[in-house]
UniProtKB/TrEMBL annotation:
The chain crosses the membrane at residues 34-57, 78-100, 112-133, 145-162, 182-209, 230-250, 279-304, 325-346, 352-372, 392-413. This is Mn2+ and Fe2+ transporters of the NRAMP family. It comes from Flagellimonas zhangzhouensis. Its main location: membrane. Keywords: Membrane, Transmembrane, Transmembrane helix. GO terms for cellular component: membrane. It is a multi-pass membrane protein.
Length: 414
């Protein structure tokens, strides 16, 4: 247990990063729009995607190298596939996360004098400073407190809404179909981003690398996987909490959750306070903001680290990407690029996120196969490679995601 506690880091960072949009927004909407049946896709997505993320920790713990280096060892084609997905994420994911977080911030502090673009800029600056000055250890330590607070707040709220029972249906309420075009597209988005996109396996690997650097004694593979499993299971439980809250408080009322980040933030916080009491408004608002703030911080850190690592592997002779200030420069570059995306493409943010969803979702089976190929390569001794049960789950996950991806492409072309 002592060794496990010391190894805590990448798993918690994964949980903190994943609990953002996919949980706070999509899980809540899933319960609110379609009810308890959404338990099934949430559990299946978390189950079938598990091996892809686990392989990131497995490869790094055994080899002390990043998963990106594993792709490079397989061949430049594999590395370029991951590089293209990372490039698309660079121009979409952070911008979307920061806009939602800005909305929560404006809601929490009742900011009305400036727009979401200015609040986003301040968040970009503040988080960039934290990442550059505090580095990995600060990120890890600060998020332990955030996850604890969020878990307690969600547990209390979930218990209370279950005790109170579901809200009565509105008059003439028509239950939405799941297997029509709208329902399928929502289901695809939920599965695609639950618990997060598959390319985040590379992010987990980079955090694993940083965690190894901060530890005097390298954790065993068993301990490293146990630590990751703690974070992964916590991620799944919190997704179900958000889904239950949306189901018990909104399903059957006909209430539409807004697409506006500021309005949605107010609706979300009110879901909690209706069941706990107005006295808890500030506490819940802070917890919700802390959730998205931590997601921004972890995603910003991860995409910056992965981008530097990809560039180092693609251009090994370029000193610009290998000097000690490369991470600092990339953190600032990500802040500037994504703030410009918010300014220039705010009206088309949905289309940009749709592009990121398409790339992540359609290429997820390929990334899953790449991860399996990496952890079964000559880099890893036979005794540390995935056992038969995990390999079967991996192939099942690839088939599951492939069928969804093919159906998604078919719907887009129809």
């Amino acid at each position: 247990m002592k060794a496990l506690l010391k190894a805590l880091g990448p798993g918690l960072l994964f949980a903190s990063m994943a609990i953002g949009t996919s949980h706070l927004v999509l899980s809540t909407k899933a319960g609110a729009q379609y009810g308890w049946v959404m338990v099934i896709p949430i559990i299946l997505a978390n189950l079938f995607k598990y091996p892809f993320f686990e392989f990131g920790i497995r490869y790094t713990t055994v080899t002390e190298k990043s998963l990106i280096e594993g792709y490079s060892n397989l061949g430049k084609t594999y590395l370029w596939v991951y590089a293209i997905i990372t490039l698309i994420s660079t121009f979409t994911v952070l911008a979307a996360l920061y806009v939602v977080t800005a909305g929560l911030c404006m809601n929490l502090f009742n900011v009305t004098s400036v727009g979401a673009d200015i609040v986003s800029l301040l968040l970009f600056l503040f988080i960039s400073v934290l990442l550059i000055v505090g580095k990995y250890r600060f990120l890890e330590n600060s998020l332990k407190a955030v996850i604890t607070i969020l878990f307690v707040a969600l547990l209390i709220t979930t218990v209370m809404v279950l005790q109170k029972g579901p809200v009565p249906d509105a008059a003439n309420y028509q239950r939405p179909e799941i297997f029509n075009e709208v329902g399928i597209l929502f289901l695809i988005g939920l599965v695609g981003w639950m618990p997060t996109a598959v390319e985040a396996s590379g992010w987990v690997s980079m955090w694993g690398m940083e965690n190894l650097k901060t530890m005097k004694n390298k954790p065993t593979l068993k301990i490293a996987l146990q630590e990751f499993n703690v974070g992964y299971i916590l991620t799944g439980i919190l997704a179900l909490f958000f889904m239950i809250i949306g189901w018990m408080t909104l399903y059957g009322t006909g209430t539409e959750l807004s697409g506006s980040s500021v309005v949605f933030a107010d609706q979300l916080v009110n879901l909690f306070t209706v069941h706990i009491g107005n006295w808890a408004y500030f506490f819940i608002a802070v917890a919700a903001f802390a959730t998205m703030f931590s997601t921004c911080m972890t995603a910003h850190d991860a995409i910056s680290r992965v981008s530097v690592d990809v560039l180092q592997k693609l251009y090994p002779n370029q000193s610009l990407f290998s000097n000690k200030n490369a991470f600092t420069a990339m953190v600032l570059a990500m802040a500037i690029i994504n703030w410009l995306v918010i300014i220039l493409f705010s009206a088309n943010m949905g289309n940009l996120v749709g592009l990121a969803t398409f790339a992540s979702f359609v290429l997820a089976p390929l990334l899953g196969w790449m991860n399996l190929k990496t952890v079964t390569s000559k880099d890893i001794p036979i005794e540390n490679q995935p056992k038969l049960g995990l390999r079967i789950l991996t192939y099942t996950g690839m088939v599951f995601l492939t069928l969804f991806a093919l159906y998604y492409c078919w719907m887009l072309l129809m």
